[in-house]
Amino acid sequence: MTDSSDSPFGLGTLPYGVFERPGEPPRIGVRLGDSVLDLAATAAASQWPNAEVFASPSLNAFMALGPAAWRDVRARVADVARCPDPDAVVVVPLDDVTMRLPLEVADYVDFYASKSHASNVGEIFRPDSPGLPPNWKHLPIGYHGRAGTVIVSGTDVIRPQGQRSPQPNRRPPFGPSTRLDIECEVGFVVGRSSQLGQPVPITEAWNYIFGVVLLNDWSARDIQAWEYVPLGPFLGKSFATSISAWVVPLEALEAAQVPLPMQQPEPLPYLSGGEAACGLDLHLEVVLNGTVVAKPEYRDMYWSPAQMLAHLTVNGAGLRVGDLFASGTVSGEAPETFGSLLERTWNGTDPLQLDDGTARGFLEDGDVVTLRGWAPGPRGTRVMLGEVTGRVVSSPYSTV
What we know:
- By secondary structure, the chain is α+β, with helices and mostly antiparallel strands.
- It is 15% helix and 26% strand.
- The protein has helices at residues 39-46, 60-63, 67-82, 115-125, 221-227, 305-313, 341-344; strands at 16-20, 27-32, 35-38, 91-93, 98-100, 108-111, 142-144, 150-152, 157-158, 161-163, 174-176, 180-181, 184-190, 209-216, 219-220, 241-243, 248-249, 257-258, 279-280, 283-288, 291-294, 324-326, 352-353, 359-360, 368-376, 382-393.
- Strands 6, 7, 8, 13, 14, 16, 17 and 22 form an eight-stranded mixed beta sheet that branches. Strands 4-3-2-1-5 form a five-stranded antiparallel beta sheet. It has a five-stranded mixed beta sheet with strand order 9-26-25-20-21, with no helix packed on it.
- The mean pLDDT is 95.
C-alpha cells in the first residue's frame, strides 16, 4: 500500500466509511485506492487506544473521541499504509464489501448558501418579487430536514407523492411528483456535541466538524412549490437525502481552504471570524445517465461552513455527535455550474440534451444521478470526495 499522485484515494484522502462482508458484522474502514483497510481488525491487532470503537456499525463512537483522537488515528492509518505489517494490517478488496450509511444521523439541517442558487430559485418561484429575500445577506437561511430519510449512496430513490398546485378554483391534484429534481450539495458531519444554551463561536466552529460528504438533496419541485409558503420545505424534501458512503476528514482539506466571496453588508459579529470564515475549493460534477450536465464550484458559495454552524447554534441549540448540515445547492453564475435541474433547465422550459439522445427537464423513472468531486491536496495532489449515486424508481403505492 503506497501513495501515488494518480491514486483516486491515496494517502492525502483516507476517508472513513462503514462496510460489511457476507456473514460478518459491519465495521469501520478506510478507503485506500480500490481497497478497504479494516480498521477494526488492524486496530485490535496493533493494540491501538480505543480500538473497540472501530468495530461499531457507525462512525459515531469514533467521532465522539474528539479532534485529538481524529488526528492520531489518521496519522496511524497513514503510517500503516506506507509500511504495512502483514501480521497486523487487514485489507480487503473494495469489490468484496457492501458499504453502509457511515453515521447515525442525529439531526439534519439544510442551508441555502449559494447566492446564485437563491437568486435563480427566487426568480423562478417568485417572478414578481426580488430574487433574494431581504434577510438572505444577513444570515445563512436553512431548514430542518428529516434525519431518518438520509440514505447511503447506491440506495434507490422512490418517486414521492403529494399535493401539487391546483388550477384556479380547483382542488389540488394528488399523485407522484412530475418535477423530481436533484440538488448537488456538500454535507458536513458534526463530530462533537455542544452544551444546550451555549452557542458555538465561529472561531471554534471548524473544531466541531469531523468531515465532509457529497450530498444529493432530492427535491419534488411541484410538491415544494405548493407547500412551501409560509413555512418552507416539507414533503417536497423529506422523502430522501443521499450521502456518499465515504466521509473525508476535514484535515484532508486543509490545502483546499480559500477566501470567501465579498460579503456585503458585513455580517454581524457572531458571523465574522476572519480566517475561520473561509470557504473550500471543491470541484463538483453532476452526471445524469452518464452525461455530465453541470460542474458546480463550491468556492463560489456565499456563506461558509463555519458561519453556518455558528448560526445553527447562536440561539442556544445544542449539537450532537452525528449531526449533519448541508450547504444547499452549489450553483455559480454560469448555467453549466447550476447544481439543480430546476435551474439548469429553467423549470423544465429548456430541457437538457443527454449523450444517449434523450432530453430531460426533470427526472424520469430509471434515471441514475451521480455526484462526484475533488479538492486540491498538498504538492499538487488531489483529495477525492466519495461519489453519491441514486436511481429513481416509481412509487409502488396507490394514490388517493
